[in-house]
Every structure is written in structure tokens, then in C-alpha cells.
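Worked example

This section walks through a single chain of length 488. The input is the sequence exactly as stored; nothing has been trimmed or padded.
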Amino acid sequence: MLGVSIPTGYPCLRALILRDSYSRHALYVLLLTFLCYTLYHASRKPISVVKSVLHAAEFSGDNAGDKSVGWKPFDQENWSQLIGGLEYIYLLVYAVSMVTSGYVAERINLRHFLAFGMLFSGLTNIAFGFAYYCGIHNYLYFFCVQVLSGVTQASGWPAVVTLMGNWWGKTRRGFIMGLWNAHTSVGNILGSLVAGYFADSDWGAAFAVPGITLVVGGLLVYCTLIDRPERLQLPGRFARPPHLSLPNLKSAVESPCLPRRPSSNRLEELPCQSDTTTTAKQAIGLCDALRLPNVLAYSLLLFFAKLVSYTFLYWLPNYLVVVEPGTVTAEQAAQLSVLFDLGGIVGGILAGWLSDPKLIAYQALASAGSTTSLVLLFCCGLTVNGPYALITTAVSADLGTQHALQGRARALATITAIIDGTGSLGAALGPFLTGILVPFGWSAVFLMLLTSDLLALTISLWIVCRSRRSTVRPSVLDARLKYTTLRS
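Given that input, the structure is written out below as C-alpha cells.
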């Protein structure tokens, strides 16, 4: 190790499994980050499943508070606004905290950042379930728990994407990130199944169980994770061959890493991609990141994509209960909603279909027990989550390591946080608007989703046209950043 404390469990892990293989270390980081974000998403799912249990089927004040007919204060006619408010404040705080998390993640050890983020995220989940066992009915309590949850949950995404960028670089990025991003849907599936199992009988456990697993995952990260390969003396990718040592390079005038300055005959070493240099360690500012090509455009695109995706995430189980009253339980709705996330896994890999026709068909033909509805639900997951998955993984990673940065590799967390943070504002707006529109009928909700998809499509077309022009006319910003980097 290079000036960094060794995680407690790492020596044993390296001796038994990882050894001195760079590829094994990279694969372990892939699997560990996959597990981490699976647990993050599993812990976010319970509120969407338990929603139909928290509010009463009939708004009777006589038995209010009894778990069979609702849970105060959600057993009222304005239940959709109350629950929508909890979802909105969580996602709003999450979106704001995301930018801050990306900024902080580039400046501290990612192992500590991710581990403590998982620990406190798990505790907030447990605190929400704690209300069931202690008979807490104060709306302010649930509100505060959601605020804390939004802050702590924002630690996950900038950390895991940066870890993947550190260890995997640009090697088959689209394919690897497409497979890796299945953690979102896998987490949703596991969260739905666990929450659905406990929802009708013990909804507190629907929050507590994912919370406990998140805490355990945080301990695993703290004990075993190495955040950057440069911290290890591994043969392979970051080992400098003897012929690239500085004395030998001084005699190799043709080396692209050693340009000759016109005013001097002296050769000066400039940073190569394989080196861990001051330039590579330099973190980028928020304003500089926003000025990078396509960062703002993809942020707006993700805003509308996540608006649609998170509306499904938070309201689909409740919609499945409502579409056929009395025939679908909370557990069955959770199991049926899994099809949306299964489609999301496939869509995250394919990431190429338009979602509007599927949304129209699903709203028109939805019936929780029909085969047609189940097929359409799978297709909606494939087409809605596919582009969303691509933007949050491969696209964000490419923008965070693009040529305009000139080796400033630590911009990845900030750019990822900006894009996903903006997208999370859309994720906050979608469920909030749904809570307002539900009393006017589900047709109004689907109209909102279709409008969002059309706006996302418009932005996508603009990005394509702009990218084609930029291949002919190099970006002025690219040249400016290159000049600044060379001067420094």
C-alpha cells in the first residue's frame, strides 16, 4: 500500500482469492459495487409496496391506526398527498445532496465515504420501520426520517460509479456498465419481494430487513475495499516498465510524453495516462464540470427519464392494487411489479427502444391478471429503464473521462453527481405530481409520463445533432481546457 491504512479484511481476501492479479481485484470491485447498489435500491423500494397498507381502503375514523385499515396519519382522504410529500422530500433532498456527495467523494477516501453512507442509510430505513413497533403516528417523524434518508442515500451513486471508473477505465465500458447497471433492477426486485412478504402482516420488517442488510454491506466495504488501483503495487496495468523510467525517457526524444519546448533543449516529463500525477489527482469544480460538452444536456435528459422511471418505482404496486380493487393484495402487487424491473435489466443492456407506444398500450390495456398487461409491463420496464440506465452509467463515465479533461480523472464523481442529481430532481417531481394527479384519474398520470418521454426524446435528438456537428468543428472548450492543462 502507498501511504494508506490497509482495510482489516483485505490481507486475508488478497491471500485467499485476489492474490496479485489486477483482473481479480477489478472483478471484486465490480461485484462488490454491484452488491452495494443492489442493497441501496432494495432499501428504497418498501415505501412503494407498503403504501397500499398505510392508507385505508375506506376512510373510516373509527378504526384509524389499526394496521388492517390503515396507519395514522395516512388513513385519510388526502393519503396520496401525504405519502407523495414523503416521497417528494426524500427525492428532493437526495437530488440536492447528490451534487454535494460527488464533490466530497473526490476529496476523501471512497472506502470510508461509501461504508459510512451505507451504514447511516441502513439506520434510516430501520428508523422508518421502528414506527410500526412503537406505534408512532406523527407525520413529522416520518418526514424527518425521509430527509435523513435522502442525505445518506446520496452517498451511493457517486461512489460506486467512481470506483468502477477507477478500476475498469474505458474497457468495454458500454457492455460492462450495461450489465453492471442491472443492480438497480435487481435491487428493486429484491426490495419488492421482501417488502411484499412483510407488507400485510408486519410492514415494519419491510423497512428493517433491507436496512439491516445495508448496514452489513457497509461493514463489508469498510473491511475489504481498495478504492483505487494506484494504492496497490500490482503487476499489470499500473506497473511502469523499466524502459519508461525517467533516465531512459530523456534519451528518447520521439516519446509522445516528452515534447521539446522551443525555448529550451531540456526535456521535461509530462504526465502520461498510466501515471498517478498531480493533474490526474486534481478535482474539477462544479462550474467547470457544467461547461463540459453535453453534461448539461444529458442532465436534462435524465431529468425526464427518471421522472418516468421513479413514478413507476413508487406508484406501480399501488396502481396494480387499484386497477382491480379487492383482487390483488399488496404482496401480489409487489410480485407483479417485479416484471417492470426484469424488463429494466434487459433494457439496461439493449438501451435502444422508444417507450411512448408501450406506455399508451399499457394504460389502455392494464389489467393486473391479464397476460397482455404482464407483457406490456415488461416492455415498459425495458424501454423506460434502458436509456435511463445507459445515461447513469456508460454515458456519465465517458463524460467524466472525456478528452477535454486532459487526464483530470477525478472529475468523474462530480460529473456523475451533477447528471444524476439533476435526474433526481425529475425523480422527485414525478411521484409528487402523481400524488396530486391520482384524484383526477390515472389517465392524467399517464399523460404526464408521455409528455416527459416526448421531452426526453427531443433532448436526445438535439444531443445527436450537436454531436455530429462537433465531430466537424472541435469544441472551443476542449481547446481551452487543453491549453490550461499544458500551462499548468
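What to look for: The chain has a mean pLDDT of 73.
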